Amino acid sequence: MPTFFLIWFGQMVSTIGSYMTVFALTIWIWQLTNSATALTLVGFFSQLPRIFVTPVAGIIVDRVNRKYLMILGDVMAGVCTIAIALLHLQGSLQIWHLYVAVAIYSVFGQLQTLAYSTSIALMVPKRNYTRAESMVAAVNYGSAIISPALAGRLYPVIGLQGIISIDLITFIVALSTLLLAKIPQPTFTMAESSETVVQKLTFGLRYIVAKPNLVAMVIAFSLFAMANDIGKALYSPMILARSGGNAEVLGNVTAAAGIGGVLGGILLSIWGGFPRRIHGMLLGFMGTGLFKTAMGVGQSALIWMGAHFFASLNIPLFYSSSNAIWYSKVPPELQGRVLGADQTIGLIIASGATLMAGPLADNVFEPAMETGGKLAGVFGGLFGSGAGSGIALLYTLTAIWMFLVGLGGYAFRTLREVEVRLPDYDQS
C-alpha cells in the first residue's frame, strides 16, 4: 500500500488548503448576501456539470492513464483558484464568478475523484478496502478540523487573498506526490473498443440494472443522499443564522464534525468494519440521521458541536462500507464506468437537493416559523421563532428521513443480503 499512502498524504494536504478557501468564501458570501440561496447555489453549480461529465469520465478513466487524470484535476483546481484570487485582488470578484469557477473545477475534479477512487482497488488488497476508504474519509474530516480553525483565525488577519495563497501551496504538495507515485492501470480489452458510443455511455447503468442487488444499493443510497444533501446545503446557513453570523461558532462546529469524522475513520481503519459491510452502511445511515436530528433541534454551540461530532463519527462507516461493497463486486477494469453511473445518479439527486434547499429555507420554512407563521404554533416551542428556526426545522426533517432509510433498508432482502447473493468479481 505504499503508493496509496503517498497519494493519500498529498490529497490530505491539498484538501486542507481547499477547505480553508471554501470556508473563507462561505463567510465572504454570507457577509455579502445574508442569503441561504446564494450559498446553496454554489453547491448547485459545483454539482450540475458533474451530471453530464460523469458518464464520459467513467469511459475516460477506464481508458486513460489515471495518474495523468489526477494530475490534470489538481492543475485545473489551481487555475480556478488563481482566477478567483486575481479577481478578488482587483476588487471585481462577484458571486457569479464563483459559480463559473466551481462549475469548471467540478468537471476536472470529477475526473480526478473517479480516477482516484477506481485506483484504490488496484493499490490496496481486497481485505483492506474498508480500511483504505476509512482513511480517505478521514482526509475530509481531518481537513474539517484544521481548515476552519486556521481559516477562522487567519481570515481577519490575511483576508481571502492570504487564504488562497496557502491553498495554492498545498496544491503544489499534492501535485508533487502524484508525480512521484506509480499508479497501476486496468487492462483494456479489444471487445470494449468495438462498442458504440451509446453502448459505452450506458454500459455502467446497464451493468447495474442487470444486478438487482446493485440496484437496491443505488436506491438505498439515493434515498439517503437526497435528505443528506439538503441538510448539507443548509448546514452553514443554519449555524450562521442562529448564531448571528458568528464565523467562530461555524468554525468550531465544523471542527467538531471533523474530529468526529477523523476519529470514526481511525477507529474503522483499526477495526476493519463489519464482516458483512451492508450492516456498516445501514447502521451508519441510522447513526448519522439520529445525531443530525439532535443538531437540528439544538439551539446552542455546545449542542451543535456534540451532535455534529457524533453524526460525523458514523459517516466513515457508511461511506467506507458502501464503497468496499462496490470495489468487491465490480471488476477494476469496469469500475470507471460502473461507479461513474452510480455517481451520476447521486449527482442528479445532489443537484436537485441543493437547488431546492435554499428556496425552501428562505421562502417557505423561514417565513412559516416566524412569529405568527403557519408552522410556528406547532414547532415554535421546539425550534423557536428567530432567524434560522425554519432552516433548523427543515434540517431536522431531513435527518429523520436519513434514520428511516437506514432502518427501512433491513426490511428488503435484496439489499440486506447483497454480499451473499452477489459474488465478488474474482469469484464469479
Automatic annotation (TrEMBL):
Keywords: Cell membrane, Membrane, Transmembrane, Transmembrane helix, Transport
Major facilitator superfamily (MFS) profile domain residues: 1-185
Main location, first listed in the record: membrane
Top-level division of the source organism's lineage: Bacteria
GO cellular component, one term: plasma membrane
Membrane disposition: Multi-pass membrane protein
Transmembrane segments: 7-30, 36-61, 68-89, 95-122, 134-152, 158-181, 214-235, 255-274, 392-412
Alphabetized GO MF terms: transmembrane transporter activity
Subcellular location, record wording: Cell membrane
Annotated PANTHER family: MACROLIDE-EFFLUX PROTEIN, MAJOR FACILITATOR SUPERFAMILY (MFS) PROFILE DOMAIN-CONTAINING PROTEIN
The protein's name in its UniProt record: Major facilitator superfamily (MFS) profile domain-containing protein
